[in-house]
Amino acid sequence: MRSRMSDWTTYEDVRSFIPTKKLPPFWIELAGISYCDHTYRISRVDSDVTVIEYIISGSGTLSIAGNNYTPTAGDIYILPVGTDHSYEADPNDPWIKIFMNLQGSAVPGMVEAFGMHQKVLYHGCQELYPIFTSMFEAVNSEASTDQIMEQCCMLLVKLLNKM
Questions:
Q1: Which tens digits make up the pLDDT trace of 108-118?
Q2: Of 71, 99, 105, 131, which is most buried, counting CB atoms within 10 Å of its CB?
Q3: Nearest alpha carbon to residue 98 among 64, 128, 62, 119
């Protein structure tokens, strides 16, 4: 699915998933690639998702818990469920980024188990880009939803372990 945001110049290649029954321990609510423009901005209060993003190119500003960060190409950030956060693309050098919005009771535990709950921004993670592209490919595959979730859960564990 291709959606447009803001003033119709930001594009996202996204896929969303809606659980048919009770939310499983690991679930991808939304995943894709954002081709941001100068108006791109996301803000959440008490977020109901954990957000993991890889910056392919560009830069922007991220605010969480009173701290400001500047994610740029090759960086990864993790925004835990339950946080207030906002992020926006630099109007002169907007992001292109791969993202996953994750839900489920296992996700916070996975982030914590790998020690990722104490840090938000990870610089210089270019070697992890192939894991993100594998996740994007899995999400857009013809596999069943259960198979997609299983594959992406395994890829997330691989990603967190390598980080």
A1: 999 999 988 78
A2: 71
A3: 128
